[in-house]
Design a protein that fits this description.
about 130 residues; mainly beta; Ubiquitin-like (UB roll); about 10% helix; globular
């Protein structure tokens, strides 16, 4: 399958999802070389836009992302990577399992009984908003 690296100047977003429970862990970017390395080694490699180089997630921390499955969306310009987190199970550089921990407020959240988008449940994970 061909991946469209041209839409974003040689990069595609790569959504990282826990392969066992579906939790979204992080978002990174891949160029063709990072994608090839990921598929060939079985460990997730990204392209760092700030350092302008490849980096394999967990190469220094030990919290590597072992690739279980990979898919592209219908436009072939975004990847979904299902992974197993090795090491301590921490994915974010801030020490949390998921990078998605910062709540955002909706404009209409002041209505009585509504939950804030990103509000955390008992386990510390963002909870879903009921509509």
């Amino acid at each position: 399958m061909n991946i469209d690296f041209d839409k974003m100047q040689g990069l595609v977003p790569a959504i990282v999802q826990d392969g066992s429970n579906g939790e979204i862990l992080m978002l990174g970017f891949m160029n063709r070389e990072a994608c090839d390395r990921t598929l060939n080694t079985g460990y997730v490699t990204f392209f760092s836009r700030t350092r302008n180089q490849l980096w394999t997630k967990g190469e220094t921390s030990g919290n590597r992302l072992k690739l279980i499955a990979a898919a592209t969306d219908c436009d072939r310009d975004t990847l979904l990577l299902q992974v197993e987190v090795e090491g301590a199970g921490v994915v974010c550089h801030e020490g949390t399992r998921s990078c998605f921990t910062q709540p955002l407020s909706r404009a209409d959240e002041k209505k009585a009984g509504e939950k804030q988008v990103g509000q955390k449940n008992e386990s510390g994970n963002p909870q879903r908003v009921q509509s």
